[in-house]
Amino acid sequence: MNSVGPEYYCGTLFNGLGSGYNSTSYFDQCSFPKAIAASKVDVALIKQIDCTNRMCRAVFQSLEQTSRMEYYTNCTLTDTSTSKKISFQEVVNLCVNITTVAPSTAPTPGGAAAPIAANPASPSSSPSSSTNTSSGNNTGTVAVIAVAIVVVVGIVVGAFVYLRARRKQQPPQPQTGDTYLNMNAMEQPPPTIATKGTASTIQSSIGSANQQFSLAPGHVLRDLELYRIRAADVHPIKALSKGAFGEVWLGELFGEQIAIKKLISSKNTEADQQKFTSEILLLSKIECAYVVKFIGVAWTSPFDIMLLTEFMGGGDLRQVLETNKKTKKLTWTHKFKIALNIAEGLVFLHSMDPSIIHRDLKSRNVLLDSSFNAKITDFGIAREIDDSTLTAGVGTYRWIAPEVLQDGHYSESADMFSLGVILSELDTEVIPYSDLRNAAGKPLMDTAIMARVMSGELKPSFSPECPRWFVELAQGCLELDPSERPTAMKVAFNIRSRIQGFI
C-alpha cells in the first residue's frame, strides 16, 4: 500500500481545527470554524464577518505560519459561495486588506459583528475612562489571539510533528492482494459483505449497537482527535473476517487499500470501547517496520470507532502455512526471514519505555505481504507494563507460556515462549500440538495439553529436516523457566548472524 496523499494530512488538520475552535465560545460569532472540519468555507461570509471582527480575525493570524508548513501547502477547501476550490493559504490571507473593527457583543442579523462607532467626546467622558476602554479592548484582543494560538499549537503543530515523524520512519510498502485473515484469531465466518457505495456499510452495521452505551464522546474521542480521519473518506469494500470481539474489513482511503477494524455490536459497551481506544492509542505510538502500520481512526459517533491500518495482502502466517502443503511457495529462506521479522518486532516493543508486551503473539497475529515480509499485529490485549502483575486469561492457550497458564504472571519472556511456538510452526507447518496423540491414538484434549505444558512435560515438536540451529534457538525460547529464555534482541542477533548473506 502506498502512503496516503495530501488529503490525509489536510483532513487531519481541518478536523483538528474544527474541533479545537468549536470547543470554545470565543469564536461563536465566526463563520470560519463552523465548516472547516468538512473542508469547506464561505469566502463571502469570511469577508463580511470574520475579517471585520477582531476575535475572528485572530484565527487567521494564528494560522499564517501553519499554512506554510510542508504538509499543508497544498491543502484546499471548497468555497460554498462559489462552489470553487480555494487554497488554505488564500483563505488564511483573505483578511489582509480588510479593515478590522472591535468585536461587538450583539451580532448583526446577518451574523456579523456590528461595527462600534467612534464615540464623540462628551462632558461625562474623561481621559481615564477612554484609556481604560482602549486597554480593555486591547487586552481582550490579545487574550483571544492567545487562545487561537494555543488551539493551533496544541492541534496543528502536534499533528505536523506526528505526521512528519511517521513519514521519516515509514517502512517499505507491501503489495496488496486478495487474501487477508484474522486480526483476532477469528474463527467465525465473515459477516455479510457490503460494497463501497451501498447503504450497508460499517457505519450502518454498527449503528444497531447497544444504545445504552454511556461513554461520553469527550471521554474517549478527545484522545483520538489527533489521529482522526473523516469517516466520509473511509470506504468499506468488503468484510473479511469476524471474531468474538471485532471484525476486519477491506477498505479504501484516498484510493489506497486499507484494513478497517471495529468492534461488533454485542461488544460495543463502555468497557469494550475503552479497551479498543487503548489499543488504538497504543498502536499510534509504534513506528516500526515489523509492526503493522497505524494510519488513523475514524468515527461519526462513539458507537462506530474504526481503527485504520495498512492492508497486508499476503494473509496471516497460520493461513499461509496451512496452504503451503499444496503451494510449496514458502521456502526455508522465507521462513528464516519471517522469524527474523517477528523477532525484530519484539525487539522494538520490548525496548520501548515503558516496555510493551504483546500477550497474544501467535501465527494468526503475524501478517505477510506478497513477498513474505512479516509484521506483528493485533494489540487488542497488549498492554504497557506497569508495577502490577498482569493477569492471564487472554490469547490462545497453545501459544501461551507455562507461567501464564499457571499463575497469570506475564513478562517479555512470555512473548519469547510464544515466539518459540511460532518457530515450531514454521518448521512443521501445523497447529502446535495437533500432531500429538494419546495412547488411544486420538488427538490430545485441550486440558491435557495445558496441564503438560504447565509442568514442562510437553513442548511443540520439530521435524528431522529442521536446521539444527533453528531447533536449538526455538527450544531456548521454550524453556520452562522464563529467566532461561533468550531476549528478543539475542534471538534477532542469532537469526541474523546465521542467515547473513543467505537471504
From TrEMBL:
**UniProt xrefs under CDD domains:** STKc_MAP3K-like
- Report domain Protein kinase positions: 234-503
Q: Which SMART domains match?
A: S_TKc (SM00220)
Q: Which Gene3D superfamilies match?
A: Phosphorylase Kinase, domain 1, Transferase(Phosphotransferase) domain 1
Keyword Transmembrane helix carried by entry: yes
A GO MF label: ATP binding
Q: What are the alphabetically sorted keywords of the record?
A: Membrane, Transmembrane, Transmembrane helix
Q: Where is this region: Disordered?
A: 109-136, 167-194
InterPro entries hit by this protein: Kinase-like_dom_sf, Prot_kinase_dom, Ser/Thr_kinase_AS, Ser/Thr_Kinases-Pseudokinases
Q: Where are the transmembrane segments?
A: 142-163
This chain belongs to which protein, by name?
Protein kinase domain-containing protein
Q: Which organism is it from?
A: Aphanomyces euteiches
